Amino acid sequence: MKARIFNLAVLFAVVCFLFSSCAPLIIGGALGAAGGYVISKDTTQGVIERSYDSAWEGSINVLKEMGAADFEYIPGGKFRAYVKDAKVNVKVEQMSEKSIRLTVSARKGLLPRLKLAEEVFVKVVERTK
After folding, report:
1. CA distances in angstroms from 3 to 7, 23, 28, 38, 110, listed in the order given
2. Cβ neighbours around 110 below 10 Å, total
3. What kind of fold does domain 25-127 have according to CATH?
4. Rounded distance, CA 125 to CA 71, Å?
5. Where do the domains of the chain lie?
6. In the 3-class helix/strand/coil scheme, how is 15-72 assigned residue by residue?
7. For 12, how many CA atoms within 13 A lie in the half-sphere containing its CB?
């Protein structure tokens, strides 16, 4: 069973590499209930066991603590804010009754700010337990 899961994970990574501009990394274990998250050029994304409202409010609170300015709410569970001169986009999607998909991307102009996106993602996961 573990070998099959490993093979599927490798296949997923190869397919993602072939269809994207960069190879995503799957990092697991560090986030407990999240089980892992996917990183691409400017985006960190993961499915976590949280309520939609908890993740939404937690995301806003984390960004405010990081000094976010100019919140812009976009229909469909999205919002945008500016942190450290970078545009940070957050999307919260309901996956099931008890889990959501959290997607955080960050860019400063045309340049990706992956470290900032990952920092926001991890803080939201840690603070909304």
Report:
1. 6, 22, 16, 20, 40
2. 5
3. TATA-Binding Protein (3.30.310)
4. 20
5. 25-127
6. HHHHCCCCCCEEECCCCHHHCCEEECCCEEEEEECCCHHHHHHHHHHHHHHCCCEEEE
7. 10
CB of 77 within 8 A of CB of 56? yes
The pair of three-digit structure tokens given for residue 67, joined into one six-digit string: 């000094």
Alpha-carbon distance of 8 to 77, in angstroms, equals 30
> Which tokens go with 80?
């945008």
Tens digit of pLDDT for each residue in 62-109? Answer: 999 998 878 888 888 899 999 989 999 999 999 998 899 999 999 999
pTM of the model: 0.70
Within 10 A of 102 (CB to CB), how many other CB atoms are there?
Answer: 28
Beta bridge partners of 93: 101
Contact 47, 34 (CB under 8 A): yes
Render pLDDT for 16-40 as a digit per residue (tens, 0 to 9): 554 444 434 444 433 444 456 777 7
